[in-house]
Structures are given as structure tokens and as C-alpha cells.
Amino acid sequence: MNAKKPHKEVTILLVEDDDVDAQGIMRSFKKRKIGNNIIRARDGVEALEMLNNGDVSHPNIILLDLQMPRMNGLEFLTKIRNDDKLKSSVVFILTTSKADSDIVASYEQFVAGYFVKDDVGSNFSDMIDMLEGYWKIAYLPD
Question: Which of 59, 64, 96, 125 could be cross-linked to 13 through a Cys-Cys bond (beta carbons 3.0 to 4.6 Å apart)?
């Protein structure tokens, strides 16, 4: 597996069932003129299908909600961490849950960060600023 050098455009897989939140995140990227490819799945099942069917090439960053129908975020994390092709995925949690059990379970699955939607700034601005800074200096797996 190769690593992408910093400053490369990264692909983002947004796994989010809430249309308002998903649109807000994508609008905030566009408003900042961040032209990264953002692909949306509405739950863990759809995200896995997209990844396994080749509809989405290996994303560099996954933004993952925890509370979703069919397959929640923690179940999705377990599946990708047990998949040799996907286990190196960089995952950030973006959720409404402040439960210690969700935070601990997420970090036990090696997430890169855990964000609560109420705390990430208006229009997700603080989180997007952090993510943009992250991929500009981080080496990410292909």
C-alpha cells in the first residue's frame, strides 16, 4: 500500500443519513472553495456496497455518523477494520452522541477523531477547517 503525499486532493466518503446535515457539510466545503470529491452514502450498508462494488475507490477520509438505520457507524467501523482492503481507512466520527461508550468504542476502532455535531461550529466550519489542515500535512494511505 502506498501513501499519498500531503497537498493531494483527497476523496471523502460521507456516511450520513440526515439530509440536512449532509447538505450542510457539502455546502460548507463548497463555500470554502474546497473542491474535493465528496461521495455520500446514507448508512453503513450503502457505504459498504459502494466500497465493495467499486462504485467508490478507496476513500482517503471517511466522515461517519454513528446513529443510522440498517447499519450504524460502529457496525460499519467493525466491518471495515476487518477488511484487508479497507482497514487503513482514515475515519472521523461526526455524530450527535456524547455518550462515553460511543466515544470509547470509536477510538477502540482506531478513528482519527470524534466530533459532536453541536460542537463543530456553525455550518460545520470548525471541523472542515481542521480536516483541510489535516490532509494538507498528513500522509494518507492509498
Answer: 59
